[in-house]
Amino acid sequence: MSRTTALHQAASLLLTHPDEDWQQRLDLVRGALDGLPGEEPALLRRFCEAVAGVTQLEMSARYVDTFDRSRRRTLHLTYYTDGDTRRRGEALVRWRRLYREHGWRERADELPDFLPLALEFAARSPGPGRAALQEHRAALELLRMALIDHHSPYADVLEAVCLTLPGPSPADRAAALHLMRSGPPTETVGLLPFPTVRPRAAEAEESRR
Predict the structure, then answer these.
(1) Cα-based distances in Å from 75 to 56, 104, 142, 143
(2) Beta bridge partners of 114
């Protein structure tokens, strides 16, 4: 397993809802990160340390408050570009097609753009998986910034994920919205041909500013 693959798999486990096996997941992630150098593993380890003493029930409540009660912090990537529009349905179909073209089926209880699923796919199919994450770089960066604003330790996990992708992170929300409109800074093979026209979600975001 490569370093980036290990990081994506670890982030997937940490961003999945903390259920009864949460402590085992934390132990598994710590073991996988043990000895890995660099800023990304350090960020994931810092998250693990920050939540180490939190019970599973409390982590579950924090998770719901963080990701399920705010549209600005949703883990569903296409919401950032397409909002609740028909275009989002088309984007979800492309995610499903991408998974199936590479012999992988998503969980039936989650939409295919769910970030933990996308990260697991990137760990199993690094080429197309990383390209898909890069296509959604702006969404990842907006989520990272929203988690920082929320003072959530999950911001470390998102920062680690963003650091695995080529190119620097946007400096602020305005730069992230510009990236959403113009596309990722590094060209990728057309695995996910999402439109680079001005997304309605970006228009709504700027109208609230």
Answers:
(1) 20, 20, 11, 8
(2) 76
Each residue of 5-15: b (16+ CB within 10 Å) or e?
A: bbbbbbbbbbb
Distance separating alpha carbons of residues 177 and 189, to the nearest angstrom: 22
Residue 203, C-beta contacts closer than 8 angstroms, at least 6 positions apart: none
Mean pLDDT of the chain: 83
* Contact (CB, 8 A) for 206 and 177: yes
What does residue 131 show for φ and ψ, rounded to 5 degrees?
A: -65, -40
Give the N- to C-terminal CA distance of the chain in Å, as an integer.
43
φ/ψ region of 33 (left if φ > 0, alpha if ψ in -120 to 50, else beta) reads alpha
- Nearest in space to 169 (alpha carbons), one of 78, 48, 39: 39
Tell me if 194 sits within 8 A of 180, measured CB to CB: no
| Cα gap 22→59, rounded to integer Å | 9
Both structure tokens of 185 = 């800074």
* 113, two tokens: 């753009």
Q: Summarize pLDDT for 183-207 with one digit per residue, the tens.
A: 444 433 333 443 333 344 444 444 3
Instruction: Read off the pLDDT of residues 8-27 as tens digits, 9 standing for 90 and up.
Output: 999 999 999 999 999 999 99
Cα–Cα dist 199/90, whole Å: 14
Give the pair of three-digit tokens for residue 84.
């609740």
Q: Which residues contact 13 (CB under 8 A, 6 or more apart)?
A: 25, 28, 29, 116
Residue-level pLDDT at 199: 43
